[in-house]
Structure formats: C-alpha cells, structure tokens
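WP5 quarterly update. Target: Tungstate transport system permease protein. Source organism: Alloyangia pacifica. Length: 235 aa.
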Amino acid sequence: MQSIGEAFHLALSLVLSGEADLYEIVGLSLRVSLSATVLACAIGLPIGALIAVSRFRGRGLVLIVMNALMGLPPVVVGLLVYLHLSRSGPLGFLGLLYTPGAMVFAQTILIVPIVAALSRQVLEDLHAEYAEQFRSLCLSRWQSITTLLWDGRYALLTVGLAGFGRAVAEVGAVIIVGGNIDHLTRVMTTAIALETSKGDLPLALALGIILLVLALGVNAGVQALRMTAARQAHV
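Structure tokens (predicted):
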C-alpha cells in the first residue's frame, strides 16, 4: 500500500513525463466533452433565445421544466440512452452503444437544459433592455434573436464553458453507455473510478490533477470572459 505522498509523487511524474496512456484518456475526454458542448450549444442557445423573446400561455410552466431539467440525474440519462441505443432499441441500427458517439449523445442530453436555461436568463435580460428599440425598428422575432445572440456573445460563451465543465466531469451516464473500454471509451472520470477501485492511486491522482487543472481553467475562462463583457458594456 503506497503512502499518499508516494502516490502524489508518482502521479506528478506521470503527468510531467507525458505518459501515452494517460494523455490518450485525456484526449478522448476533451474530444467527447467538446463535441457534446458544441452540439448542446447548437440546440440549447436557439431554444433559450426563443423562450427569452416569446410570451405565451404556459411560459411559466416551461421555465419550471427547463430549470428542473438542469438537475437531470446522469445515471437516468445514461440508462435512457442505453435503452435507445441497444440492439432492441429504436436507435440500435446506428451501432453507437459502447462508442465515443454514445458518450457524446448522453453528455449532450445532460448539457442542453443547462445551456438553454442559462442562455434564456442572459438573453431575457438583454431583451428587456432592447425591446423598445426592436419594436421601433420593426424587427421580426428571428431578427431579434440573432441580434441578441450576437450582442450577448461574451456572456453566452460563459454558458458554453459552464456546459463544458459539466460534461468533462460527468461519470454516471458515460460509463453506462460507453462501458469504460480501454483505448476506446475510457475517459478521465471513468478511469479515475476504475483505477481507484484497483488501487492504482498514482494514475487516478494524475488524472484527478489534470481534471482539476481543467476545471480551474474553465473557471478562469469564465471570469476572463465576464471581465471582457463588462469592459465591452462600458465602451
């Protein structure tokens, strides 16, 4: 049994040495999470923008559902995606189960409500400021949406980073649909769970260090974008 100090020392050695298996796992994690974030933004941002500028009966209920979906249990999402992608499921013909594509699918479902709900709040606040100008210019709903998306681009980038942070830290859904297969679907979070259960603390800690650095990087990026947006607002 290694001491904590020895495990940390070996973990840092793995990180600094550029160990191939370690960075293969990191690379797959980034590809899956970035792909899911892009897809989630492509779906969630228009939904959030449309709800932000629209007023309709039942809107309050829609907002409640959107906010509730932000807390979707990952294992439930993973189970539902598994059932759809399995051979007997409606999407079984795609052959995505236990592939990175299935992991992207699951992460996208988890992130879309987050992106839609957060972007709705950002764009609704902007719309409240610009609504009178939009009416005076006789802009259509879609023209208003594209204008808001562009004007709120810095704030929306922070929404995207929040979605990415949620995706890269996900374990429950991806392990169900991906299977944690070595050199195919093993990402940082699933590898940490596996290596910890095996007692291989150095590799688990090395991945944990990289995951922590990524989380700090995302938070730093969010803060930098907020400062940029604030400076732009005062120009």
